[in-house]
Amino acid sequence: MSTTVWRNGSVWISAGQSTHALAARDGVIVAHGDDALALIDQAHDVIDLDGKTLGPGFGDGHAHPVFGGIETLFAPVRGHDTLEHLLAAVKKWADENPDAEWVRGEGYDPSLAPRGEFDAKWLDDIVPDRPVVLRGMDYHTAWVNTAALERAGITGSTPQPIDGDIAMRPDGTPMGTLREWGAWGMVYDLLPPLSKEQQIIAVQAASAAFASCGVTWAQDAWVSPETLDAWLAGAHAGVLTFRANLAWLAEPEGKWRDAFPTFSEFKACVDREAPELLTGGTIKFFADGVLEGGTAAVLEPYCDCPTSHGIPNWRREELIEAVAECVALGFQPHIHAIGDAGVRNALDAFENAIAIHGTANNPIMAHCQLVDEQDMDRYRELGVIANFEPLWAQLEAEQTVLTIPRLGQERADRQYPIATLLRSGAKVSFGSDWPVTSPVPMQGIGIAVTRTTDHGVGPWVPSECLTLDEALTAYTYGVAVQAGETQAWGDLAIGKRADVVLFDTDIHSVTPFDLRKVGVLGTWLGGKRVFG
Length: 532
Prior knowledge:
Blueprint: E1 3-14, E2 17-25, E3 28-32, H1 33-37, E4 45-48, E5 53-56, E6 58-63, H2 65-70, H3 83-96, E7 103-108, H4 120-124, E8 132-136, E9 141-144, H5 146-152, E10 165-168, E11 174-179, H6 181-188, H7 196-212, E12 215-223, H8 225-237, E13 243-249, H9 255-273, E14 278-286, H10 316-328, E15 332-337, H11 340-357, E16 364-367, H12 376-382, E17 385-388, H13 397-407, H14 409-412, H15 418-423, E18 427-430, H16 441-450, H17 468-474, H18 477-483, E19 500-503, E20 520-525, E21 528-531
Parallel strand pairs: 1-4, 1-5, 6-12, 7-8, 12-13, 13-14, 14-15, 15-16, 16-17, 17-18
Antiparallel strand pairs: 1-2, 2-3, 5-19, 8-9, 9-11, 10-11, 19-20, 20-21
Helix pairs in contact: 7-8, 10-11
């Protein structure tokens, strides 16, 4: 038997409960405090915390880890502060990879162009001879060049998709900005599949990123057959160092009917091939798009387009029917809902499932960015888990340049009602939506506590700020509630898995503004060190 003891620091067991030492045997927590210290003589490893904090490993309640790993394979388009720098990065990668059939990149900043609309001609100037497809950091928008439009057969006469938008120039030709799957899927469907080697590299990169910031469990909120192949390749290659639940992507317009039986087969495959690390009990729905792109479904029209209520990716009636069938098959529904109309449709779907089946299988609503006052209490009443990405609750460019002009100030100041829902008795979990934004939980926790940007802008709607323990709980136990695994992890209670993270400081002595800077010195998965 292998025993590890962590001593000489602060052990945050859960909200309101701390101790000074922890012991684990064969990956399971067996003792706290002095009882843990009594096991030092038989320990195989003794970790001196040196006054720093040890806490439960984080859960990420909504992320796309394989997508995050895939970003490392292609043009580095993320993080550029000007359009010129972004274009230079694309050109450099294209020049260095002359044999690549497609020039691809993931995660550019959509606020670098007015209204988030990018022209194909800008890419034509740097890569005229090959198709280029870049996806925005919201993962709901793509920017392509003329060659890519031609490959996909997108012209001025192409009908607008029901679940997407092809941005057009004043002369009626496609601009090169494609919003939502219905539009950019026409291009992405043409991309060559990843090789097995690339799949393993992507999962290894995702594992390294999560381990370095203390994440030991994640919800992959968008899994296709190709993504499943990557997960299994990574698990079989031994490079997967966190646990994950996979959510199978359901598509509207009747496509889900044929897909649901396949999802049961996928789940059985996961249970058979990688039961120690992977589960597959969730189905993902996109109720709408995103506010910054004007595609989130809203009850009142957008200020900058008075005829638009956004794009509900599912007709309300079909979403209600599909969620009920999802629950009937024993899957957990996980619905992306950002606009207040999208939120209401999702709540209606959950309510209907409960009326039919007596349960909605621990339903999750991701993002919950704009919630109408009439719907606030429905989260608690229906047992819906509100999964927030707290890093977004600050006044950065996506808000000031794109979202607020579209919503107007009154609606803008009702975004991300995290404290309101939590204190109403609703269940709240946290996630990152990585690679849309950073996977680092402490960055999100710092924003949840302060609602202030790195540059000191804020606090934005200070009544929605959380305490540190509330935020830590949402990123640990709250995600375990979402996963339905509170008996196994989520805090450092005796008998639970030794999924733990060691910070580089005593986190309760740090000023609220500096929480986002707290680093990780070590991460353990089931008592095995995977980082540090």
